[in-house]
């Protein structure tokens, strides 16, 4: 991958059913722009990576450990390593940004999808 790219030039990967991510990876950090279809569910899981994120468009309901909250644009989350978490997109879907450290090398085995225009940002 080049050091400078437009989101539309980054092929998405299939993370879960109805959930796609475009990755920008460094040596220590993965930045993911994640598109979730309406009502898409991120099943409960855990991973050793720290994860911070923010809703860009749409609505998400997150559960991190025992805390649950609905978040809209500007809503943020912090997930420490090995903490169980789940999320559900709202009825209009959502676009979120996730940052993981260390990098999500486990995503290397995910299916790479056909290059398509990103949901966000909207282009005239």
Any chance you could write out the topology, listing elements then pairs?
Blueprint: E1 13-16, E2 19-25, E3 30-36, E4 41-45, E5 50-64, E6 67-71, E7 76-79, E8 85-101
Antiparallel strand pairs: 1-2, 2-3, 3-8, 4-8, 5-6, 5-7, 5-8
- The CATH superfamily is Jelly Rolls
Structural class: mainly beta
**Ends distance:** 26 Å
* CATH fold description: Jelly Rolls
Total strands: the figure is: 8
Q: Give a quick account of the main beta sheet: strands, pairing sense, barrel closure.
A: 8 strands, antiparallel
- Named CATH architecture: Sandwich
C-alpha Rg (nearest Å): 14 Å
Total number of domains: 1
Calculate the mean pLDDT score and round it. 96
* Residue windows where pLDDT falls under 50 for at least 5 positions: none
**What is the count of DSSP helices, taking H or I runs of 4+ residues?**
0
Proportion of residues in extended strands: over 45%
Oligomer: single chain
Shape by Cα distribution: globular
H/E element order: EEEEEEEE
What is the CATH top level name? Answer: Mainly Beta
Helix content: under 10%
């Amino acid at each position: 991958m080049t050091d400078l790219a437009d989101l539309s030039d980054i092929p998405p990967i299939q993370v879960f059913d109805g959930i796609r991510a475009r990755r920008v990876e460094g040596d220590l950090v993965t930045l993911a722009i994640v598109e979730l279809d309406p009502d898409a569910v991120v099943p409960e899981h855990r991973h050793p990576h720290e994860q911070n994120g923010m809703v860009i468009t749409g609505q998400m309901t997150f559960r991190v450990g025992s805390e649950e909250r609905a978040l809209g644009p500007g809503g943020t989350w912090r997930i420490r390593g090995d903490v169980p978490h789940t999320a559900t997109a709202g009825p209009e879907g959502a676009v979120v940004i996730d940052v993981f450290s260390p990098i999500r090398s486990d995503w290397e085995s995910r299916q790479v999808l056909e290059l398509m225009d990103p949901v966000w940002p909207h282009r005239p």
